[in-house]
Structure formats: structure tokens, C-alpha cells
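Hi Y.,

Following your request, here is the sequence exactly as I used it, all 145 residues.
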Amino acid sequence: MDLLKSLKISASGMRANLKRSEVINSNIANAQTTRTAEGGPYRRKQAVFGAEPARDSFSQILEGELDADAQTVHVTEVIEDSKPPILKYDPNHPDANDEGYVAMPNINTVVEMADLLQAQRAYEANATSLNVTKRMAQKALEIGR
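Below is the corresponding structure, written out as C-alpha cells. Let me know if you'd prefer a different format.
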């Protein structure tokens, strides 16, 4: 395997998991947000991974065709969870409806923390792979001395 391709694969995995971590952190930060600009409670978001990045310009398409054999991962989109909000009885809350229920975000912080830990471990695995590839390249250069 080409060392540069290996570096690209590891770097793309690190970028994708960094974006995934940002989305998860946003979910955790908004776990109690009952009012958003769109109206209603915050909706849980998820990062969707894909093998092909979105290409907008001709140069991006050309670059993708020239490097087509390197399988990299990218966050293709961030989607909202379709689950309904959780209704919590709190008649004193400013966002409570006529029956006293507040629509809370559909976020389970335990699940989000587990997802965050998984994203962190995947990031670390890609970083380790990148460092191993870098050391292999350094050792190969030392052979020529």
C-alpha cells in the first residue's frame, strides 16, 4: 500500500470522527433546550458517514478522479432524528402547553456519552495508524543513509 494513501485514509477518519464529536457535543449541550429558532425543542442530530465527499467544483471532481483508488471517509450530511420530543410534566415551565407538558429534546445523555466515547476511540485509532505510517516512512528513509 502506498504510504500517502494510508496517511490520507487515516486523516479522513480523524476528520470524520472530529465532526461526529462536534455533532454529539452539540446534542449534549442542547439536551435541555426547549425553544429553538425553528420552533419547538432541539432535535437530536447525527453525522452520516460516506465514502465519497460532496464535490462542488470542477477541480474537486478532477482531484477525486485522479485519486479514486484511495478509500476515504467523509461526513456526507448531518441529519435530524425523526423521533418525537419527550413530554415532561412541568406546569411552571415557560414553554409548557395548556395541559402543563413541556416538549423536551429527544436526547439521552447516556447514549450521547457512549457515542462520544466511540468517536473518540475511532479518532485515536486513526491517529495511531497515522503515526505508525509516519514512523514506517521515517524508517524507510533511514535505510537509504
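The beta strands are 45-50, 74-80, 86-89, 101-104.

Thanks again,
Q.
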